[in-house]
User: What shape does this take?
Amino acid sequence: MTDLTAAPADLMIETPSWAYGNSGTRFKVFAQQGVPRDPYEKIADAAQVHAFTGAAPTVALHIPWDRVDDYAALTAHARSLDVGIGAINANVFQDDDYMLGSVTNPDPRVRRKATDHLLECVDIMDATGSRDLKLWFSDGTNYPGQDDIRARQDRLAEALEEVYARLGGDQRILLEYKLFEPAFYTMDVPDWGTSLVHCLALGPKATVCVDTGHHAPGTNIEFIVAMLLRAGRLGAFDFNSRFYADDDLMVGAADPFQLFRIMHEVVRGGGLDPATGVAFMLDQCHNIEPKIQGQIRSVMNVQEATAKALLVDAAALKSAQETGDVLGANAVLMDAYNTDVRPLLAEWRTAKGLSADPIAAYRASGYFEKIVAERVGGSQAGWGA
Amino acid sequence: MTDLTAAPADLMIETPSWAYGNSGTRFKVFAQQGVPRDPYEKIADAAQVHAFTGAAPTVALHIPWDRVDDYAALTAHARSLDVGIGAINANVFQDDDYMLGSVTNPDPRVRRKATDHLLECVDIMDATGSRDLKLWFSDGTNYPGQDDIRARQDRLAEALEEVYARLGGDQRILLEYKLFEPAFYTMDVPDWGTSLVHCLALGPKATVCVDTGHHAPGTNIEFIVAMLLRAGRLGAFDFNSRFYADDDLMVGAADPFQLFRIMHEVVRGGGLDPATGVAFMLDQCHNIEPKIQGQIRSVMNVQEATAKALLVDAAALKSAQETGDVLGANAVLMDAYNTDVRPLLAEWRTAKGLSADPIAAYRASGYFEKIVAERVGGSQAGWGA
Amino acid sequence: MTDLTAAPADLMIETPSWAYGNSGTRFKVFAQQGVPRDPYEKIADAAQVHAFTGAAPTVALHIPWDRVDDYAALTAHARSLDVGIGAINANVFQDDDYMLGSVTNPDPRVRRKATDHLLECVDIMDATGSRDLKLWFSDGTNYPGQDDIRARQDRLAEALEEVYARLGGDQRILLEYKLFEPAFYTMDVPDWGTSLVHCLALGPKATVCVDTGHHAPGTNIEFIVAMLLRAGRLGAFDFNSRFYADDDLMVGAADPFQLFRIMHEVVRGGGLDPATGVAFMLDQCHNIEPKIQGQIRSVMNVQEATAKALLVDAAALKSAQETGDVLGANAVLMDAYNTDVRPLLAEWRTAKGLSADPIAAYRASGYFEKIVAERVGGSQAGWGA
Amino acid sequence: MTDLTAAPADLMIETPSWAYGNSGTRFKVFAQQGVPRDPYEKIADAAQVHAFTGAAPTVALHIPWDRVDDYAALTAHARSLDVGIGAINANVFQDDDYMLGSVTNPDPRVRRKATDHLLECVDIMDATGSRDLKLWFSDGTNYPGQDDIRARQDRLAEALEEVYARLGGDQRILLEYKLFEPAFYTMDVPDWGTSLVHCLALGPKATVCVDTGHHAPGTNIEFIVAMLLRAGRLGAFDFNSRFYADDDLMVGAADPFQLFRIMHEVVRGGGLDPATGVAFMLDQCHNIEPKIQGQIRSVMNVQEATAKALLVDAAALKSAQETGDVLGANAVLMDAYNTDVRPLLAEWRTAKGLSADPIAAYRASGYFEKIVAERVGGSQAGWGA
Assistant: This one.
């Protein structure tokens, strides 16, 4: 059996800078106390998540939300807090110019502007040492006939090619897909098939990012994971959970069994091996819950699902599968899922010098009270801003 | 056969004040030119829709977005523009106090505040002569266990009772339901069953409002319409259309056949008779399209669906249904749907002294250019504000 | 804390006679070995489930599949095997006469025939001592216009009234709803709202049956459970699980967390108290897995979900909910869910003189080999027959 | 403007032999009068559809349902009735051996048997002169863990390679995908992405078949059509319509606007040009409606949608799209959709010597009465058999 106290240590989870700021729905962005006022404070919060979990050593940036004058200074700041800069997330959706699209806009001027922003993001990657450029395009149409579906694909391909050509040797594109929202008739990259088609056209440094909240009802996400691992094109996860649409709740909160099944396919396909390059990221909105605690809890949820996936008795599973023992094979999986892995993870934490209960330890640390007191005035640049 | 040139005249459609302001998704509210800066300007825009369609004689208000000091003055303003004030829409979702709910909040102080707002809306109804109080609650929970589902129902019932008791003799409550958003685990009024249960407990002045975008995938909306008409509890429609969730696109834009089927059930159940009290309202967000044109087009879409529904040969349909002629009965319905009713509606407009082509007439009127020039500075209070 | 070793004993789960026969999809009913050839053999199989779980003391019948000449003899047979006859399930969908509906058919002759069958089922209830008449109607339409939605409701109400009047003092109607299949445009009872409307019209002996596989995507089933318990109209569950539509998989197999949430609302609403009259039934199709084992596993899954629900620290949950501690309240629920209750249930079984591992004990019993050898020839009357 | 009276003539629609036999749901296959008892009678019925519509010149076969000793005789029979043999549909789902899969079965013996059946279908193609081998696999799993997702992909790829290698110079594979049913946890080819991945691996003679009823709720089918045309891999349509799942209703019956949008993308992408090789097929189940009439109506529905698509003013649309005129562009599309094209199609039919009203002409022909009288005794081999 897998060494349970060692294995989860392999899984490092990246948290996103924007999770620490206010977020909300179109109806309301509720203001919370102590939210960061600049990228430096976001990184400080992210460092807390790593300090208490030991499993969140990098933080993703969102440009322009996290634009600073001196990326070397920002990177050094992160390093001083024992975390690193992770993926660079391009944002080409929060400018009035992008109302009808960014890289797929019918207007060449807007496309140029959007592509230039993507190239700027690669510059920032060079400055921060980031490996991954995460591209999510809000582009799409709201009404049938509004624009030409195929022409938009051609424009998208053109922009991606230009960005791909600009990538450094170890840099990658992670191309995310999403079924709907903010566009309601078509998204220009609505599903994994579309994302993969573009990645295949680009080359080996282009891979697919699976956001667990971006699928149609009934979609089997772990099947997609298995397909992308088989194709060598699973680049990253954006973890979160949902009951309905892209709810962006804490990963594992809506369907912990699904998260386990996803991690089981990751284990099955070798995705925990760093050599496969699969990045594990959170992408959530803590609209009503405390943000740092929400991130800590999410990291723990991924760890628990992974620990359970590692508990699956692979030999017994294979044997039951090959003999067509439907209930037996399912039981092997469920045995792992039904195991309470929290004691194992507590043991792993203790062995690493961490508190066995990261939430309690964070609550007791006084950090939240400190930032509430300190972070008065100013305003974040971010979600819903 | 129904007199087609007369019948659509019976259908008057209420437009919402908030449709004239900027709206958007959580990702971005795109600013459009010439949007109203106060309720007076919103009403002026609504009056344009009526001027060109002859079918939108009232405008619904949203409180507090449309709060003014002098409702008599606002009503007189509307009257001077040949329109009236319609339903009053309560808003208990855009205040930080409501993060965990309004009338269902676990905190009694917040519940009191929310209920007081509802009572204030009845005061405004008295001042404006409005018949209908439209209640949509964003209340719900995001996480399992977050609050007690049943206790929230009890709190909701308590608030509704207090408001119901405050209603004047001809005033009504329209209780709207919605599957999800902004809450993602439970909404406190997620479906027509929940809304009806509360209406039945309240009394005859409480009826259900059907927003056509607020259902789970696969829900047969016209079935609900038939059920509510049978129960005498269909109070109103909030018309819009959707491909995925609550997209709030122009009614009839996503599935015109569904709109026709809904209007067919309205006709079948007598809902066009003003005595049944069914109110026909638009509730849409024109995120990327011009707002006044969007409303004109939506009114026309409802008129076209209604004209087609009135074309259904009721006797032939009944005969085919009773003899079990599946294809024959379906064909009767499809014959009406496949008819191009635009010439009939053009004729009806011309007979009323309107332009046969409301969109072209509006475009030619110069109104849009005028408001773009005039409405500089100021900011709307509204959606996404 | 609840006495865990005692509590699950309160939950008795009814298994359905049809689960022991062959079943399938429209594409194929795969034949399995050893399936029962008559109702007596079905009851014998059901008795095995009870023998190994101690929690399945009754078996539901399906008429006409389980029609026999002598119900007293059948009941005595069950009794001799230590089980009883449970609910009587009417079947008005497997006769060519019902192509366009049974009690809602436009043809009065067919309606009469269907209603007579329902009355026959009450006769059988008298003979078997059954309390519950479970009514699921496959009635509906495939095409818009095919029949009049409202007229079908009136016909349904008329038939239900006649059956309700025939009920004995302790007998009940359980009215099941289903979103779609086998009808594809409308079902005549598609949702809990429709079912409840009819139950309210009938009287207190009419209650709603919640089949966990009969909802639209995204429907929050535990919310419906809470609403029906609040209204005093939750009559029964038909447990199964689904990934897409009415898949009829083993309960708890697709989303064990949902099953836990459902049982949490049952516990919260007092539904485990026999006085509330909530019946817990399985309704599944074991298309590809061994049937008796599938039922045993399903009973165990319900027990595990219930044990976890009973583990929820109600006082801590209430306290967190009332103070608006979103993450704290959720954590109370998740703590219970994440607990491995299998040791507790094993202890409970051992205390009752059962094997701690019912599946292994059944496998070791030789029963399966015995029926495979004995049940040669004959053909079942049942699903897909 | 397109020559409307000429254009629809280009669109020839293949009808499926199995649509003429009885079909149903898992609950019941209702028997209809006059259904064919062998492949010869099915082809005779298909010939009627062509005789009255002039647009259904080929009929697809389903093997083994339509297995005959002498395919040359069957082909000659078809030719004598003025129709031809179309695609060969393999059936590897109606044998007890396939309970756990056909070409993806864990058992190599079953895989061999299934692949041999596919090769037999190519033999039949050689005998009938068919161009297309349509492959739909019911393969999948019902329970998590039941089998290895990735291993099943490898097995699938292996079988497809063998069949691909066997294809003659002008023969093609059409690989169909389906979200769910009959498998409920995973289908082995659930979406267009999976199908395309396999087609790309096979080579240019492998293309994707889009069944319009095989998608998750909310999927934008016309987007997929545009993507596949762009990739040169759209091989065929299986037309039908659905409200919920794979309802297999008459195409255009559930959402005629969607069908129009699909045909608009076909026109836009050049798919009406026979050189692109896109095949237009019906795949429906007439469970409750007369089958030949149902096919005639379906052919007419596709013709109407195509005629409307051809009416779209491409230049005006392009102009509005390029200038970002959202409402204007949508209006161009809607103008075409709202046009009543039935008179145009009646004119086209008359010009071809057909009745302007195919349904009425068929009804008056006496064919139905004739087959009811003649086809007594015997039983079909087919759906639900």
